[in-house]
């Protein structure tokens, strides 16, 4: 029977409406060109010999070196047997080894599920950092860790949006996550344009104009 088959008509319409341009036509074309270069090299007939993916805002695509301390801790906590290997002291600095040991002591296996707000011990470290940076008390119970910025944005929008008349101000140019997440939540995008001639600064007059228009159109911004 047709009701047992998943079709476009039966899929959540908001999922069909969502567009995530980070994986859109230009990146797909770039991948095709990269494959051409890998297969044919100089015979590909292209006026360049490499493709750099800048669409996801990842500076490591442009050869920025990752933060070694974080990578070292990730390696040691993901594979704790390294901590007892005779060569570890020659490969890893002592501060990374010490941090990995303390984290494993506090967390246990990093493969285990943690508290939904994030590992309590790490939230305490974050609170201490905020205390020292801002000179203002910070409570671990009010810190919520997420698996990356995208997850955090999606969580916040789910909390903020209560109906299809709700809208959220988003900057243009924007990271496509914003419009995609708003579409998934059946909410409205309220764009405001950044001023390229002012180093992409905020144009307050344009912001106010778009805010007033959205409210005039019945949007709860």
From TrEMBL:
Subunit structure: Homodimer.
Aminotransferase class I/classII large domain residues: 92-216
Protein name according to UniProt: alanine transaminase
Pathway info: Amino-acid degradation; L-alanine degradation via transaminase pathway; pyruvate from L-alanine: step 1/1
SUPFAM superfamilies according to UniProt: PLP-dependent transferases
Cleavable signal peptide: none
Coiled coil regions, renumbered to chain: none
Keyword Transferase: yes
Keywords, alphabetical: Aminotransferase, Pyridoxal phosphate, Transferase
